[in-house]
Specification:
single chain, 125 residues, mainly alpha, 0% strand, globular
């Protein structure tokens, strides 16, 4: 995931006009489908778990479909912040690249005059 986000950040940085337009509606659609769903989504094998020391193997069960958004329902957290510093760091390592990517999208759109309501909504989440 980190490599994909890194490539996307590079594309947005190098070609903002060509990438911001298609990527923002895609992300907005993923976010809105999560918000509209009543059930919890599968977090997948790479989501941090308390006490997990290694990454899962390829044979681990994966989500039914790829998930691009990075929302998390509070009931899916295994511990409150501050209870387990290793778990807190694992969550930060998992979510930070995505949120940095959204920040890159926002900055590129702002500098190129490509701001949209969808992008503002992404930056608030």
């Amino acid at each position: 995931m980190k490599r994909v986000v890194k490539v996307l950040k590079e594309l947005v940085t190098l070609l903002p006009r060509e990438t911001v337009g298609p990527v923002v509606p895609l992300l907005a659609s993923c976010h809105s489908s999560f918000l509209e769903s009543n059930g919890l989504m599968t977090t997948g094998p790479y989501f941090p778990r308390r006490g997990q020391k290694t990454y899962p193997t390829k044979t681990t069960v994966r989500p039914q479909r790829p998930i691009l958004q990075m929302f998390l329902h509070l009931s899916q957290l295994e511990a409150s912040k501050g209870v387990d510093p290793e778990y807190d760091q694992a969550l930060l390592d998992f979510f930070l690249p995505y949120h940095q990517f959204v920040e890159t999208l926002f900055r590129a759109a702002l500098s190129q005059g490509l701001m949209s309501q969808d992008l503002v909504n992404l930056s608030e989440s």
